[in-house]
Design brief:
Elements lengths: L23 H4 L16 E7 L5 E7 L1 H4 L4 E6 H6 L39 E2 L5 E7 L2 H10 L1 E6 L6 H5 L14 E8 L1 H9 L3 E12 L8 E7 L4 E5 L5 H12 L6 E4 L15 H13 L3 E4 L2 H7 L3 E12 L5 E13 L6 H9 L8 E10 L13 H19 L3 H8 L8 E2 L5 E2 L4 H11 L5 H10 L3 E10 L7 E9 L3 E6 L8 H13 L6 E4 L17 H28 L6 E4 L2 E4 L5 E3 H8 L12 E8 L7 E10 L6 E11 L6 H20 L32 E5 L21 H13 L13 H10 L25 E5 L10
Parallel strand pairs: 1-12, 10-11, 14-15, 20-21, 27-28
Antiparallel strand pairs: 1-5, 2-4, 2-6, 3-5, 7-15, 8-13, 8-29, 9-10, 9-12, 13-14, 16-17, 18-26, 19-20, 19-25, 22-23, 23-24, 26-27
Length: about 800
Amino acid sequence: MSFLQSRTHSARQGIGKPVPRAEDARLLVGQGRYSDDVSLPGQAYACLVRSPHAHARIGRIDGAAALAVPGVVAVLTGADAAGDGLGPIPHRPVPANPHEVPLKSRDGAPFFIAPHRPLPVDRARFVGEAVALVIAETPAAARDGAERVRVDWEPLPSVSVTIEAAAAGAPRGWEEATSNVCVDSHAGDAATADAAFARAAHVVRLETWVQRVTGVPMEPRAAVAVYDEESGRHTLYAGSGGSVRIKSDLAATLGVPESAVRVVAREVGGNYGTRNAFYPEFALVAWAAKRLRRPVKWTCERREAFLTDYHARDLVSHAELALDGDGQFLALRGVNTSNVGAHAVSFIPLAKGIAVLPSVYHIAAASLRGRAVLSNTSPTYPYRSAGRPEVMFVIERLIDLAARHHGFDRVELRRRNLVPAGAMPYRNPVGLVYDSGDYAATQDRAVALADWAGFEARRAEARRRGRYRGIGLANYLELNTGAPRERAEITVRPEGRLDVVLGTLSAGQGHETSFAQLLAEWLGVELGDVRLITGDTDVAAVGGGSHSGRSMRLGALVLARASDEIADKGKRLAAWLLEAAPADVDFARRRFVVKGTDRSVDLFEVAAAAERPDAPETLRGPLAGVSDETVSVPSFPFGSAVCEVEVDPETGAVEVVRYTSVDDVGRAVNPLILEGQTHGGIAAGVGQALWERCHYDPETGQMQSATFMDYVVPRADMLPAFTTEISEVPSTSNPLGLRGGGEGGTTPALGAVVNALVDALAELGVEHIEMPATPERVWRAIHDAPGRRYAPVAGAAPPGRGGAGESARATTCSRRAKSNGLGT
């Protein structure tokens, strides 16, 4: 039986064991090596001159004053880059996985993908876009020089608000395009959906904006580059989601063969998506290093990171759900408009959001339109469950609206419409095929763990304290795909070590521990016997990096097959050593044993024997296994979350007081690490629901949340202790049964938090609150609520005046529904 077929949990530190992370011993005492820790002899330092305008034509760039600053050695512009042949970054934004729902142009026209040059020569298209590069002997001199560069700007009209960018006549960032709409696609069956809406007893609608956020990694980006004239090779030291992709994109941007580029990354201090793509600075330091014939280093400052890190979310959704009189879901229609910023770096959040909008529910028909618009903002990119938190928020809010307006129980309405486990594999109404899952079981377990039945007593107790208390439920579905190719090479060293070369790259997920647990299970070694080697493209030349829940899902697959090779070759070597037939040799727990005897030999002894000159010629050499696989088939993690909040009516402050999550990962390799990833995911989701926002001034395009004084991230004292549990329904699309496990905490959190918040204020007539649900926004909803005067809370302020406020975004109607044009 191969390791792929094995389902045992036998090893003491193997699969399924909650082993503490081995790498923490190194990282917690400062022995990690992050991008900024790399320094090379003779290096110079770079600082970028960035646009103060959201949209402006670039005139003359005068670097004379900068060059007069002591220590400044060069001022480089877009014209210099173009003259040296520096090309645009090859982002490839259109998803290409054959198992996903494709982006199809509604009119057959090609999508507009504008070139993204590291230094533009014509216009700056968002505040913070780099237009010149200053190189100096010290970081301080580089900053001083950058401040003295003079640019003749011609400000142009700009647009940063998503819907305004999509409107006819909006200021265009690209003259080559006829509008800012660069993608206009459709999925589903419009006629069937329209017919279902026509016969529906109930229809609920929601118009909402899921605001823009950014990843705020612990370690800001940094890059160091050196050019070797003798070999003609560029070496770039830069943390990212995957060095192999960075190598490919750097070679294309520089206009050199990939063999002329090496990329190295060690530790990466936080990612979850926004650091996976290629950034202009990577190309600029490599280009400058060759031009200046010395290493060049750039380190991002936090304000630069807020301005120029690729952002995320920023989706406007107009959606409606049709139900029959019994609460059965009939059809779903909607238009999702994604703001991709100034450059089309990725359409994946839009595409995946359209594909999974029906979520875990059986909805017979759907008609969904997806648009991407360019704007004068930083580009957006996949970030922690790309595209899925936004649409899970939409569908879960629609379900709560249906329950409240039409008398259904919120839990039972969901349960009634869940895709049953016996219907798997299941094709949703836009064509995506789910592999496996028991959605009812996870919802039931989450509701039980959260003590939903006892909530009303907690609500009453909160009212006695002058607080509104609410509870919310949200189910979710993930779509894990990502780069399909991964490679592993395992070499058994006679001295008692396994060297494991893998193409993925950790950003703090505990790869050194989890991958070692697999080999402890399959080969019987200790965790400390495994040395994981990643991040250097001269060693790990193939691999897709860490994104879309692919690291363990694909990494484990290639490690299993490479382990099978080692076991097979080792049996033949052991047979030679023990003078037995290979068919009579078994392998388990690091030992090769002749069946029915006490004769055996250790794995590392076999590895040593393989390198003896008298070893069989066909087996001589290092005991190693290699697997290189391309797997495009998705997996679909799923789960349920229950949130409870309390609201202070005097201030509008929202406190998350309980949070429960049940997440299915198919098969848990390390439950302890998975629980930690879930905790981080919940924090990210709650952070977006209540606090986080990249806020651009709609008039000027200036980002007004570019410091930690203005951009609020969740901290430990802002969150309760979480109750989390792992579900394991094996994925039928993965030979090991694995699904992704790092994004589920985030995906349902937006819906769970806002559903709980609206439940807390429902007796006042509040139907919806937009995110982030800041104290001011909540306070206004309370004091503008139509039922405010009828629901006093002890100690509350007098009722305010006004209408329904933001609840006007959620509407409902009964009986025969009229189409409002959504999805057509």
